[in-house]
Amino acid sequence: MGEEALQIRNGRLIDPANGVDAPLDLFIAGGRVAAIGQPPPGFTAQRVIDAGGLIVCPGLVDLSARLGAIEPELAAAVAGGVTSLACPPDSKPPLDEPGLVERLVRRSATVGLARVHPIGALTEQLAGERLAEMNSLARAGCIAFSQAKRAIVDTQILLRAMQYAATFGYAVRLRPQDDFLARDGVAHDGEVASRLGLTGIPVVAESIATATALQLAAHTGVRLHLSRLSSAAAIGLVRAARDAGMRVSCDVAVHHLHLSEMDIGFFDSNARFDPPLRSASDRDALRSAVADGLAAICSDHTPVDADGKQLPFAEALPGATAVELLLPLTLLWATQSRLPLLQALARITSDAAAILGIAAGSLAVGDAADVCLFDPDESWRVTPETLRSQGKHTPYLGYELSGRVRLTLVGGKVVFEG
Amino acid sequence: MRNPQLNANGALTHLLSIEGLPREVITHILDTASSFLKVSHRDVKKVPLLRGKSVFNVFFENSTRTRTTFEIAAKRLSADVINLDVTRSSTAKGETLLDTVDNLVAMHADMFVVRHAASGAPHLIADHLRRLGREDVHVVNAGDGRHAHPTQGLLDMYTIRHYKQEFTNLVVAIVGDILHSRVARSDIHALTTLGAAEVRAVGPQTLLPTAIEKMGVRVCHDLRSAIRDCDVVIMLRLQNERMNGALLPSAREYFRCYGLTPAVLALARPDAIVMHPGPMNRGVEIDSDVADGPQAVILPQVTFGIAVRMAVMGILAGN
């Protein structure tokens, strides 16, 4: 079912993985790309989709999206053009047991919208004390291991976790933050937090943890990915490590490309993020790092309900709904930075897929037909009603954003049409 | 972004912070307080400005002193005053801050005087009232976390104006635990708005917030050079729990480096005044000889505080 032969015509095909940006038709059969430009011999389309004025690109790959309830969040993902997403292990309960991972994989497959790639817990209960059963978790479907937002305080355990992961060639993802330096912090340690009387998280909390992770990764040879970097200092450390030949990757949450500590305004809890929004110069460094390909972009989608946000700033839960904003906010950044779409879309397709080590984010002949069709110029207003996610909280509420997804295919099947 | 405490006409709807208050609004409050001060000296200390209005003192954090001064101020304006000690009632049962507010609005509260341990809690309440379309209900911030204590800031300005008449030539030192002090932040905003010549933030690095100079103050770590030629010295309270640990080695060493003694005060201008928001730790931040000395205006601050709080409540009710 659903795997009918499709022709997507009149669109502008942008496929960063293969360096394609041209008006080309896409022919899909058996859930895969059958041909590009000209139909394969004997091809008969059961459905012809007119993509006039639209961009046709690989389905987006989100490096980090929390699901909460599976079905509405996966519906939100495909409505945002996201066809593959990595799910961090800090669900309740955390993904530290193969049974939980199997259930997540099975349930998301049953829902049949975006493809879900679980990230397993690096340590039991993410407590940073005992290693999780990484091999069993990988067999259950985990594609990498992380601590989500928790740190491993004991550096010897972090070293052992990396050594064990490296044994099997698993990637380790860390959100670098020193727990002691970040203690009680809720905002960037800078002029806004000082003025508002909020406890700050200094940049050194991130840069010290980044340096630690980089050195331990170099020592163990583990494949390291640093998630959601927020500071120029951490970006600088990753850049230096890469320049020295180290195989390390990183990403930046899409909000951090646009917002800074100033957006907290008068205690706007929608601007409470983890890691915090930092200074304008940090934001500029993140933008350049993404522009030159050092970092990919993730949505860091975190559905938070009203009870979690209608609280004084320090008590509010961090995070925002974002999976439906990943594309428009990436396009906005690309426009502002005068970057070609081919380059910008790479950060949320092929680059992200390469980091995750999954076969996605590419539309070569034979690849799975995970496709996103969007109108780059159509604008829409972000409101609780236009968002499909159960999370309705974002600093962009009420904003008009350009870039509207019109159709999403997963494995050649139409999973969203709007 | 519109300042959330001003309505569309620029009039004061809530008093949440001194940040962003136009100079004229501050001056108007101080002038109004001046007329109320006379009321305090009459035999009959009441004026009927808030007759029939209900003022709820909602203190999520204990403070008998501040609550009492608000209570006296509201009663002198003939308001009905209801004191809620929320630390012991609803929130202990799991009710959220905004649930509590909704309940009090349903009881026809006209004004909330709020103290809360979290910075920004009064802003959240004001924002909630705006969303409910209840901008007729006013919020007075009686201290939120480390953020603001605007009536204290205003009474400090009243005190300074009383003794110094005007602000433009004044050098003011604020000494002590500025990191945790909502009073310091309110004083800094008020002094910079009123055009004080120089505001010095004085303390060890551990007690000064990051980038505090962005608020328009000069950072000083040495008390003696900071006090030199000052017109006003504002000493801050050092909380007991911060005296020994990672912020400071001991109260004794703190007093040695940052305690205000007669010898240090002698470096200030001869007519300098010494202020303290209270309660004082004698022998920790201030020497008794200074606290009880002729330059201390700590008790007049308390008296002025009632007139200033009357002014704030009277102006809000009138807008």
Helix count of chain B equals 11
Q: Roughly what fraction of the amino acids of chain B lie in strands?
A: 5-15%
Provide the CATH superfamily of the largest domain in chain A. Answer: Metal-dependent hydrolases
CATH fourth-tier homologous superfamily of the largest domain in chain B: Aspartate/ornithine carbamoyltransferase
Query: Whole-number radius of gyration of chain B?
Result: 19 Å
Strand order of the largest sheet of chain A: 8-9-10-11-12-15-16-17
Domain count of chain A: the total is 2
What count of structural domains of chain B? Answer: 2
CATH fold naming of the largest domain in chain A? TIM Barrel
Helicity range of chain A: 25-40%
EC number (chain A): 3.5.2.3
Organism (chain A): Candidatus Accumulibacter adjunctus
InterPro entries (chain A): DHOase, DHOase/Allantoinase_Hydrolase, DHOase_cat, Metal-dep_hydrolase_composite, Metal_Hydrolase
GO molecular function (chain A): allantoinase activity; dihydroorotase activity; metal ion binding
If you had to describe this structure to a student in words, what would you say it looks like?
The complex is a heterodimer of chains A (418) and B (319). With 418 residues, chain A is α/β, with parallel strands linked by helices. Chain A has two domains: 6-55 and 368-384 and 397-417, Urease, subunit C, domain 1; 60-360, Metal-dependent hydrolases (TIM Barrel, Alpha-Beta Barrel), CATH 3.20.20.140. In chain A, 29% of the residues lie in helices and 23% in strands. Chain A has helices spanning 70-79, 98-111, 134-140, 155-168, 191-196, 203-220, 232-243, 280-291, 306-309, 326-336, 341-346, 350-356; strands at 6-9, 12-15, 20-22, 26-29, 32-36, 47-50, 55-58, 60-62, 82-87, 115-121, 144-146, 171-174, 187-188, 200-201, 223-226, 248-253, 295-298, 371-381, 400-410, 413-417. Chain A has an eight-stranded parallel sheet with strand order 8-9-10-11-12-15-16-17, sandwiched between helices. In chain A, helix 2 runs parallel beside helix 3, helix 4 (155-168) crosses helix 6 and helix 6 (203-220) packs parallel to helix 7. The longest helix of chain A has 18 residues, at 203-220. Chain A is globular, with a radius of gyration of 21 Å. Chain B is an alpha/beta fold and 319 residues long. Chain B folds into two domains: 23-148 and 303-318, Rossmann fold; 150-297, Rossmann fold, CATH 3.40.50.1370. A five-stranded parallel sheet of chain B has the order 7-6-5-8-9. In chain B, strands 2-1-3-4 form a four-stranded parallel sheet, with helices on both faces. In chain B, strand 5, helix 6 (182-194) and strand 6 (198-202) form a beta-alpha-beta unit. Chain B starts with 22 loop residues before the first helix and ends with a helix. The mean pLDDT of chain B is 94. Classes of the chains: A alpha/beta (418), B alpha/beta (319). Chains A and B meet through helix 5 of A and helix 4 of B.
